[in-house]
Each structure stands twice: as C-alpha cells, then as structure tokens.
Design brief:
The protein has helices spanning about 15-25, 40-50, 60-65, 90-95, 115-125, 145-150, 165-175, 210-215, 235-250; strands at about 10-15, 30-35, 55-60, 75-80, 105, 130-135, 160, 175-185, 195-200, 220. Strands 7-6-5-9-8-10 form a 6-stranded parallel β-sheet, with helices on both faces. It has a 4-stranded mixed β-sheet with strand order 1-4-2-3. The chain is elongated, with a radius of gyration of 19 Å. About 40% of the residues are buried. Helix 5 packs parallel to helix 9 (about 235-250). With about 250 residues, the chain is an alpha/beta fold.
C-alpha cells in the first residue's frame, strides 16, 4: 500500500489529546500507534477506536516522529479527514431529491491519493451523486486528495464502507445496476447507462477484486488500440463517467 500522506493533514498526537479527540465524536480517519507501545491509556484508546470502527495502523516510532513533525506523540496520534464522510443512504437520498437516477462511482482499493482526487474532480463535473470507497486498502480523504480534487471534494459525497461486495448487494437491492470496469468485458459504448447505475473502478495495479467482479451486473471495457493494455485509473474513470453523461443527455 502507498505510504500515508499525513504531513499536511490534521493530526492530534499525545495520549490525553488523542483520547479526548476519540471521546468527542469527531470524524477520525485513522489511529496511528508506534510499534511496541501498549498498555494503560493506549489500550483504552485502541479499544475505543476499534469499537467505533476507526482504522488502526501500527507504524515505526521514527515514522510517527516524522508524521507528528517532532511533537511529543507518546506513541499515538490520530489523523482527521479533510472532509466528513457521507453514507450510501445519503448518496441515494441526494439523487432522489434531485429527481435523478442514481449515478455512483465505486473505487475498489484506489490507493493513490492523486488518483482518488482526480476521480472526485471528474465525478463532480459529471454530476455523479456520490463516491464509495472501502475503509481499508484505500486512499482516504487526506490533504493530497483534497488538493488533487481542486475544490470538488467540498461538493462531493464520499461514503466509506467496510465491505464493497456487501455494499454492491445493497445497491442492487435498491435497483442500481453495477458495472465493473475491467479487461475482456463488453465495449462500454454498447451499453445503456440511462438507468440507476454505479461504476466500479479497480486498483491501479490489480484492477477490481475477483469477488467484486462477480457481484457486478456487467463487466465493461475500454477498447485499447496501442501496445499497452490499461489506462490510469482516474483517466479510465473519466472516460466512463462522460459516457454516462452522453447517454443520459445531461
């Protein structure tokens, strides 16, 4: 996984400060714990974060020193998202209030924050109602994502879920058709996107996961005319999003 981009993000470090931040109910992106640190208030912090479903990542003391820019972290720090997360329900309700068919982008383990930011930027321009990302093995809404989105993050609903496959099942129960972008699928120009739909964009190297692909209603592909067999994830996402715009005559 790519390294955490924290240096320019909102961070609180130190045991008492972190414990109060967790208790306050603020939107916490992840807890960082230095290798070998445990017991006492650290165990309490870890337990509270685990109960709240907050991602917990163990890092070396040297990395935590770097992330906290020399502050006395006492082995723990929390990182806050640059924007509060929404829920899948929020996204669907937003589409309903606009009187539009849901148009959703699902990012299956997009790890590069620049890619996620670029996808958010294109999604906002294309009228996407929301983006779904997994809690683990994914870039989060950090400072680099916000910068790469060039302001679009302020207007885009992003839901972070525990399990992408289960979320796809939930969307399908709501009448949303799910299209997975991968190799050896149907030419994307041959399909009708003027329906409630979600498009899954896979990991930069591995593509979409096997189970996620099986959950999709259809696998769609972009024709490749050159010698390489794939596009950058954010570029592919942009092409597919504008095809939805074209088919819907937005």
């Amino acid at each position: 996984m790519t390294d955490i981009d924290i240096k320019n993000s909102n961070i609180i470090c130190g045991r008492n400060s972190v414990l109060e931040a967790v208790r306050s109910g603020r939107e916490i992106d992840r807890l960082l714990v230095a290798h070998g640190v445990s017991g006492g208030s650290v165990s309490v912090i870890i337990a509270k974060c685990s109960a709240k479903g907050i991602l917990i990542k163990e890092v070396s003391p040297q990395k935590l020193d770097y992330y906290c820019m020399g502050a006395n972290h006492q082995g723990v720090a929390v990182m806050f998202a640059s924007q509060e997360y929404s829920t899948v329900k929020d996204i669907l309700e937003y589409a309903e209030t606009k009187g539009e068919k849901p148009f959703i982008i699902i990012c299956d383990e997009i790890e590069d924050p620049h890619n996620l930011g670029a996808i958010i930027r294109s999604a906002e321009a294309c009228g996407v109602h929301g983006i779904i990302i997994p809690k683990r093995r994914s870039a989060s809404l950090n400072a680099t994502v916000a910068k790469s989105a060039s302001g679009a993050l302020e207007y885009m609903r992003v839901a972070r879920v525990t399990n992408i496959s289960n979320t796809i099942d939930e969307l399908k129960e709501k009448g949303v058709w799910v299209f997975g972008a991968d190799m050896n699928g149907t030419d994307y120009t041959k399909l009708d996107f003027n329906i409630p739909c979600a498009i899954v964009i896979g990991n930069e190297g591995k593509g979409i996961g096997t189970l996620v692909a099986k959950k999709c209603d259809e696998i769609i592909s972009l024709p490749m005319c050159g010698k390489i067999n794939s596009l950058n994830a954010s570029v592919a996402a942009g092409v597919l999003m504008y095809e939805v715009v074209r088919k819907r005559n937005i």
